[in-house]
Amino acid sequence: MARLIYFLAFVLGLVLIMNISKYQANEVSNEKFNFDKTADKNLKKKEEIEKLLAHKEEKVEEVKVVKEGPLVELTTPQLQSGHDLYKKCIVCHGKRGQGKAAQNAPAIGGQYPWYANTQITNMQKGVRVNKIMMPYISRLSAQDIADLSQYISKLPYMGRK
Questions:
Q1: pLDDT tens sequence across 52-71
Q2: Hey, which of 27, 52, 143, 155 would disulfide with 97, CB 3.0 to 4.6 Å?
Q3: Is residue 126 within 8 Å of residue 101, measured between CB atoms?
Q4: What is the pLDDT of the chain when averaged over all its residues?
Q5: Is 45 among the domain residues?
Q6: CA distances from 9 to 12, 20, 21, 154 (A)
Q7: How far, in Å, CA of 73 to CA of 89, rounded?
Q8: What CATH code is carried by the domain that includes residue 107?
Q9: Model-level pTM greater than 0.85?
Q10: How far does Cα 47 stand from its chain's mean position?
């Protein structure tokens, strides 16, 4: 019990010493507080802030909204089918296939079609275990997987965001 008391006293002493050393760094002045001086300083700061805000408002330019086209040109029935199938994938992999780190979903945009096809097929067969993907891919046919792989390959590669 005595050791505990000594330890607590030692820690308390260290804390006090550390706090006292911080107070020594503060500047001490014995001159009287001058309200007029402080008011002038505050007025100068206020004027400077107003100048900065006025300068900021001058530089504001009108932003033009650019309408984006589709991510993938759906020129074939295979790509249209892949686009329809990919709507379920957006939740985890993102609209552009960029992946989501919070869900531990990899970036798949721009992936080679043969690679995406192989991975989805392996997950479906149980060669590669992924419990999160199983509800989404368990009912896909071979043609669905091929369509989805083609669509994924046309998405822009962006890396994980």
A1: 887 765 565 677 777 666 67
A2: 155
A3: no
A4: 83
A5: no
A6: 5, 16, 18, 68
A7: 18
A8: 1.10.760.10
A9: no
A10: 37
**Over the stretch 127-144, which tens digit does the pLDDT of each residue have?**
888 888 888 888 888 888
> Which positions ≥6 away from 101 have C-beta within 8 Å?
160, 161
Report how far apart the first and last C-alpha atoms of the chain are (Å, whole number): 54
Q: Which residues contact 130 (CB under 8 A, 6 or more apart)?
A: 123
Q: DSSP state, 110? A: T
Q: Which two tokens stand for residue 60?
A: 């504001």
Distances (CA, A) of 14 to 4, 17, 23, 143: 15, 5, 15, 71
pLDDT tens for each residue of 79-127: 888 888 888 888 888 888 888 888 888 888 888 889 988 988 998 888 8
Measured CA distances, 91 to 6, 33, 83, 86, 95 (Å): 58, 62, 14, 10, 8
In this prediction, residue 43 has a pLDDT band, given cuts at 50, 70 and 90, of very high
**Token pair belonging to 50:** 């107003």
